[in-house]
Known about the structure:
By secondary structure, the protein is of the alpha/beta class. The protein folds into two domains: 4-43 and 118-254, HAD superfamily/HAD-like (Rossmann fold), CATH 3.40.50; 47-115. The chain is built from eleven helices and eight strands. Strand 7 (217-221), helix 10 and strand 8 form a beta-alpha-beta unit. Helix 5 (94-111) runs parallel beside helix 7. The longest helix is centred in the middle third of the chain and has 18 residues, at 94-111. The structure holds magnesium ion (MG). The site of magnesium ion has 10 residues, from loops.
Amino acid sequence: MTSPDRSMEPxxxxxxxxxxxxxxxxxxxxxxxxxxxxxxxxxxxxxxVKAMLRAFTELHGDLGFSFEGMEIAGALDGLLFxxxxxxxGLPAHDEAHARFQxxxxxxxxxxxxxxRVRRMPGAAELAHRLAGLGAATxxxxxxxxxxxxxxxxxxxxxxxxxxxxxFGTDGPSRRHLTxxxxxxxxxxxxxxxxxxxxxxxGDTPLDIDCAKAHGCRAIGVATGPYPVERLRSAGAxxxxxxxxxxxxxxxxxxx
Length: 255
Ligand SMILES: [Mg+2]
């Protein structure tokens, strides 16, 4: 055993490699890195929320829909839908949800022009670098799957490092999304991932909670509504102002 960092990993690891370069690639393949979208990869600066509210109004009339008093950062889109419908006494059954998702998707595609979405520093580059090194990379987001990809494309982010993910209809809370994402990573790559080699990157205490609840590592990034100190006190293993130091983050994640 030459590397104390790997003493907890399956014994096969050290036998597989003979050179430093191979070692990095082999070790990277053990890792799964899951990215949040809003406040982490990009920001839509209110366009996403407005598109949702317009979809409600389009379907049900102007009932004064708003998310006032609701914590929307880190929340699941499916849950926001249910809460708003409940607030206005509207039935939130599957068909109503499907209609809402279509209306929101159409509204978002129409209004989220590239000039209205901002890429967060280093985030897409980090995903690209990790995927290039052989790590499994994907999404863990409260967004619906379709609108997640609309946002990523509008931001001009290459969707290649995000071939799978867990989304806002995959469970009743963010904690439920972690095992879903790990399962989809396993299905996509044909190999399993130890929770200790799974890193979740997000901008809210909920992103950190959904990692720590399953024995995964959490990186908190302060490009959303929460400062570094708040993410650290929420239990982030690493909290950073942004993801621009991709070399340091790559070492931390794969090390
Ligand atoms: Mg977020």
